[in-house]
Amino acid sequence: MPLITAVARLARRLERALRDALDAALVPVGVGLAWLDRRPTLRSATPIAEGALGPKVVVFCHYDRAGRIREDLRLYLAELARCGFAIVFVSNAPRLEPEEIVFLQKHCAGVIMRRNAGFDFSAWKDALLAYGLPRPETEMLVLANDSVYGPLRPLWPALGAIDFSAADLWALTDSWQVRYHLQSYFLIAGPRVLESATWKRFWRSVRPLAFKRWVIRRFEIGLSQAMLGAGFRLRAVWPYDVVLADAVGAPAGEADRDADPLLAAGRRHERRIRKAIAESLPLNPTSDLWRALLRRGYPFLKRELLRKNPSLVSDLWDWRAVVAEVSEIDPAVIVADLARSARNRAP
Fold first, then answer.
1. In tens digits, what is the pLDDT along the chain, a chain of 347 residues?
2. Element (H, E) at 329
3. N or C: which end of the chain has fewer CB within 10 A?
């Protein structure tokens, strides 16, 4: 590994350790300050037609500074509707363009506009309260957000794997970073969870925290830990250990001095995964194991991975070719969003 890359990784690891320690100390302070903030977050909520919310409901959180709905999100919402879900769309955007509102009115049972506070968990909470979810007829409640590109494949195979007799709370992926938790960009709750006092108590505790890291620690990780503590069973459609085992093939050899730098990047990343396995260091599956996930039928690509690459994944150079292999979605749709939102990175 080049010295500059090794130094960058070490610096990033030290920064993350310091940040995690600071977050652990400051999250309770942030919760206290949020309790004192009594400003309303809900700006508007469309009426729900009688019978519009059936047994399967998705509460979908959105944000776009310009008030747009990305092309892949339109496909995402249409796919959810094809899978039989009623969609509650809750947006943290300052406004929505008129054509976007027309689109949402055609595809969603309800549309909520709110102040951009507290990220997805506060948005989900507002939607649950506004429409009285879960309702007596609710059998499956999905909490989703726009932090992914896709679906790159149909969703029904993933949804078909959901079995509430095997687990009570599901997600597409799970993580061991900080503490074990289901990753919250696509959470699926079944009847036992929805009817529980633990679920209700958790949502009463949600407050609009100021930083995404705090939301992850307090609410994404906190929800899973609360459910585990109450005796509920949690499961991921693509479990971390299974995907991790699929991420490494034959032992990676040392790259020749004159090797293709793109191929060398892939070998460096595989060595990084192997080192993490050897040292029991948890990786972020949707970033570090993106390629293995797609090989196993996973339908998304994390937006943050392509926009910021926060964990310095080194084998992203051929993501367009990989997407083209597994999906009918044109990678140009993703590139168009990156052109609008990415900074200091080329696709």
1. 555 666 666 676 676 666 666 666 556 655 565 555 667 899 999 999 888 999 999 999 999 999 999 999 999 999 999 999 999 999 999 999 999 999 999 999 999 999 999 999 999 999 999 999 999 999 999 999 999 999 999 999 999 999 999 999 999 999 999 999 999 999 999 999 999 999 999 999 999 988 888 899 999 999 999 999 999 999 999 999 999 988 876 444 444 444 677 777 778 888 888 888 888 899 999 999 999 999 999 999 999 999 999 888 988 989 999 999 999 888 999 999 999 888 877 77
2. none
3. N
Total domains in the chain come to: 1
Q: C-alpha angle 206/124/170, rounded to 5°?
A: 95
Q: Transcribe 206-237 into DSSP letters.
A: ----S-HHHHIIIIIHHHHHHHHHTT--EEEE
- Give this prediction's pTM: 0.88
Domain of residue 220: give its range.
42-240
DSSP 113-170: EE-S-SHHHHHHHHHHHHTTSSPTT--EEEEEESSEE--SS-SHHHHHT--TTT-SEE
Instruction: CATH number of the domain at 57, please.
Output: 3.90.550.60
Contact 294, 322 (CB under 8 A): yes
- Residue 333 Ramachandran class (φ > 0 left, ψ -120 to 50 alpha, else beta): alpha
Gyration radius from the chain CA atoms = 20
Any domain includes 119: yes
Q: How far apart are CA 183 and CA 186, in angstroms?
A: 7
Q: In this structure, is residue 275 part of a structural domain?
A: no
Question: Residue 279 falls within a domain, yes or no?
Answer: no
How is residue 338 written in tokens? 């990156």
- Is 99 domain-assigned? yes
Name every residue whose Cβ is closer than 8 Å to that of residue 48 and which is 6 or more positions away in sequence.
109, 110, 131
